[in-house]
């Protein structure tokens, strides 16, 4: 009986607790059910959802991409440089995504060709990319000079910002790619048992490199969307964005060991954390305690993942 319950709990548990948290907040929190609050949550989570959807695929393939933070910060600096110079928003977005793609490909090649641990490899490239951001911006804030750049994420369609619509489209692409394609099956195989997958004919190195490339491109797009919302971009060496991405992926139940996970579970994890933070803010909980509780939730998620893996063996 326990053998049947554990896989189901691991697969659907995050959806159950997210619905339960939603119901609890709806019943106990004034203003939670307002349209303005829901729109605010969607808008605030748009950049994270873009990056987390493809970070999920990379983690399932057995990779760990810390460089999402640096790409998120630096890609919009390149995008705004292009926008400032040409006034062309399409080229600006393409530049931001291209920065992430180049970093992702480099990460993939270092991990697969040089056999460097993905955590160490992407940590090292993060510092390099952060440095490039300071150089390209001359250590100053860059701001949009056209009305078209803010429109990337701030235009409203049926009451929802285009940033949220972009996030929904990216999530849909990642979801379909992972769950409905041959490439998705290769991702699970590469992360579950790389040697067995290689013997079965799966091009493991190519699959992992593509995963890192897509993760980098998604982080670049997330940075552009975020800078469009804020109307500016600032060089920094802040890793906080990737911590939010990893939290969503891990709380959603994707195994840090690889081979197991789903995009929809990451989305549920992201909204579980977003609802939790939203509830904290509406109840005016001290931000210090918010951090303590968030850390405890992430630790619990990783512990449950480790425990269920041991029980299933």
Notes on the structure:
The protein has 313 residues and is an all-alpha fold. The protein has a domain at 34-238. It contains 13 helices and four strands. It has helices at residues 2-28, 35-60, 68-86, 89-113, 118-137, 148-154, 162-180, 182-192, 194-199, 204-230, 240-251, 263-282, 287-312; strands at 142-143, 156-157, 160-161, 232-233. It has a two-stranded antiparallel ribbon. The protein has a two-stranded antiparallel ribbon with strand order 2-3. The protein is globular and about 55 Å long. 45% of the residues are buried. The mean pLDDT is 89.
Give the helices and strands, then pairings.
Blueprint: H1 2-28, H2 35-60, H3 68-86, H4 89-113, H5 118-137, E1 142-143, H6 148-154, E2 156-157, E3 160-161, H7 162-180, H8 182-192, H9 194-199, H10 204-230, E4 232-233, H11 240-251, H12 263-282, H13 287-312
Antiparallel strand pairs: 1-4, 2-3
Helix pairs in contact: 1-12, 1-13, 2-7, 2-8, 2-10, 2-11, 2-12, 3-4, 3-5, 3-10, 4-5, 4-10, 6-7, 6-10, 7-8, 8-10, 11-12
Average per-residue pLDDT, rounded, comes to 89
Shape: globular
Number of H- or I-type helical stretches = 13
What amount of the residues lies in strands? under 5%
Order of helices and strands: HHHHHEHEEHHHHEHHH
Low-confidence stretches: none
Pairing-aware structural class of the strands and helices? Answer: mainly alpha
Q: Report helical residue fraction.
A: over 70%
What distance separates the N and C termini? 15 Å
**Biggest beta-sheet profile:** 2 strands, antiparallel
Radius of gyration, taken over Cα atoms and rounded to an integer in Å: 19 Å
What's the β-strand tally? 4
* Strand order within the widest beta sheet: 1-4
